[in-house]
């Protein structure tokens, strides 16, 4: 005879922890509430009488929104009862109430509650309910339309609860999202709701919203949706996007996520040429519904306008994947040889002794050949510039456009971007609406949110385009279309907001980031009135009044005004970026000197040392402003105002500042600080070598 398993015997006699009596709360008020309202409904929820169970489930669904009642219900293991008994009840009313209870609990509790439900196998319960709804909607013997109104109502109530549960549960953890998308019944349920004409308007919108959330950066879902032949959900979404209204916007949101995950871009479109270009006109038309009255925004549906703007902002960001393929150098572009230009830190400088470099004589200066170390593909790295030879001595707009487009031989705007239809439609269809919505004043929280979202969309588009190299006529077909639009953004959006002196720090940060991207892409030909740089100087001074941290004091301390965000994206850094761009040719010598002196003075201030991120950006801008010794500002400002001496004095202090940045808490900031030390030493030697004779 085999040995008995004592562990199994112990388990057999172990009491069920869920069945153990729950101790009443010590608080008298809660104890009384438990006795009066909670225990009776829990008892009825377990009653053998169907009517009692149904009534109890409905009662719990009503009181679960109350915080005290909800906490007491959770103490009484209401989730276990609902999952094991209520959701499998023979009564449809009880099942509907059970799903409503879970929906409210998920909405009111934290994300870890969703994880708890997942571990209790909530997806199996959702799958079972979803399959039942699919069968009901597709039944032929008893068509859904012939069911009693009460029966139809219960189906839609359960459907709504399932959809509301799926979103927060899927977002709680990546593994849960993967499990949801890997469940064919759940996907079939959502696809069926999109394709069915029986679905009420509210349920349809909830379904599209759910798919929009689930499909973001989700290749398996994108593939499943486009491969679906049973419901042809993808074809239905294409139809809805052209219909206008809420359905069109939400359908565009799902389609954009699908296109992005499948990499259906301008140069590699999907079915029937599908890419984001087919979505921009629909989204732009929806924005036209937001009216402007006496300079103020008016709309009957601010939420859907915000969604449309969010989608356009995402399209603007994803456009970079397309532009990387469309970033074509133009043949015959002429310029200075590498031996005659400052290219930043070269690969061979990595092992250079900075102290020796800083003290070397002109005869020992390093060769300045090499690549300027920066990541042009990272849209969020706003601390670097595309190139250091983008400044041309053009006197006015006509000469600049002749240089870029070839004068009278330039092609019409619409034809210039036929190979980049998404960018073309963003500029010609979306940008006019974005400019209007971002420049008009907001008289409510809803319209203020619309203005903010419009600025965000403009910001994403502008930064993506600013990553393209327009130096020496490269990508002229893009610049030819973008430059006039960018100048309009500056004049119609940036200038009015600057003139309003708005105290909203979020708005100031957004418009400054946008101004930086616009000025960066125009390479010194920004349509500033010659005084607007002072606005950004004042804004920089105001940013110093924000809370500053001390770098090197553990996590959360970076020495800037960014709070807990990226220090390289602080308002101060953005102001410096704009100022550097506004100082480039064809800016006047006076403007260049005013900005250059301001930056050098801030770097030289040892009593109020600038945060590391700001110092890095000041140096980046100074490198770009004075890289070309052929520019008038090099002799008239850099050398006359003795900038070289100030930079030499800064180098040893910069080394100390760089070492003070905690590389564990701020790895990118430390890396850029170390690069700034090497680049400054290299720049000093380059300027010595090319000093005026």
From TrEMBL:
Region annotated Disordered, chain positions: 1-27, 322-346, 362-417
State the name under which the record lists this protein: SYO1-like TPR repeats domain-containing protein
Q: InterPro entries under this entry? A: ARM-like (IPR011989), ARM-type_fold (IPR016024), SYO1-like (IPR052616), TPR_SYO1 (IPR057990)
Q: Which Gene3D superfamilies match?
A: Leucine-rich Repeat Variant
Record domain SYO1-like TPR repeats: where: 445-690
Query: Pfam families, from UniProt?
Result: TPR_SYO1 (PF25567)
Family in the record? Belongs to the nuclear import and ribosome assembly adapter family.
The annotated regions of Basic residues compositional bias extend over: 1-12
**Protein's GO biological process:** protein import into nucleus; ribosomal large subunit biogenesis
Q: Where is the composition biased (Acidic residues)?
A: 376-402
Q: Which SUPFAM superfamilies match?
A: ARM repeat
- Note the superkingdom of the native organism: Eukaryota
Q: Which GO molecular function annotation, any one, does this entry have?
A: unfolded protein binding
